[in-house]
Each structure stands twice: as structure tokens, then as C-alpha cells.
Amino acid sequence: MSTGTTNTHKSSLRNSFAMFVLSLSLAEKQEIAELRKRISDMENEQARQLARSKRLDEAMTAILEVRKEIATIREKENRPWWKRFLGN
Fold it and tell me: pLDDT per residue over 17-74, tens digit each?
């Protein structure tokens, strides 16, 4: 298919779609608008949930790192006095 034929085909499709849209009733156009709004709302909610999930993951990672640090400090504190004194 040549570029000219492709462009003609695209133009024909655009014209067909435009005629289809013009043929819709006001109620159908309103229903489409409502569906688009619902889809947009769902996408926004999914994005919020994903962001919340990422924040929770980051918080859990930070908590685990702090717990590891605490465990390390406790290990060092529970060593015999002479090991602490010698720095081992």
C-alpha cells in the first residue's frame, strides 16, 4: 500500500468516525462522556493506590533497616566487657 493510499484510507476512516459521532443522540453522547469520566476516575484511583503501595513499601524497607541497626547495636552491647574494651 503506498503512502497516498494509506493517507486516503486514514482520511476515509476519520470521515467515517466523524459521521458516526454526528449520528449519535445526545443521550448516547452523554453516556459516552459519563463512561469516559468513570474510566478516568478508575485510572486516577489506581494511580493513587499504586503511589500508596510504593510509599508503604518504602516505609517497610526503612523499618527493616532500622531494626537491623538496632539488632547490630544490641549485639555489640551484649558482648562481654573485655571484647567491648578491646574493640572486637
Answer: 778 878 888 888 899 999 999 999 999 999 999 999 999 999 999 999 999 999 998 8
Q: What is the predicted pLDDT for the residue at 3?
A: 59
Pairwise CA distance, residues 37 & 68, whole Å: 47
Q: H or E element: which one contains 63?
A: helix 26-77
Q: Which residues have CB under 8 Å from 9's CB, separation 6+?
A: 1
Residue in 32, 7, 12 with CA at minimum distance from that of residue 21 = 32
Cα(45)–Cα(56) distance, integer angstroms = 16
Three cell numbers, residue 31: 453516556
Distance, CA of 36 to CA of 32 (rounded, Å): 6
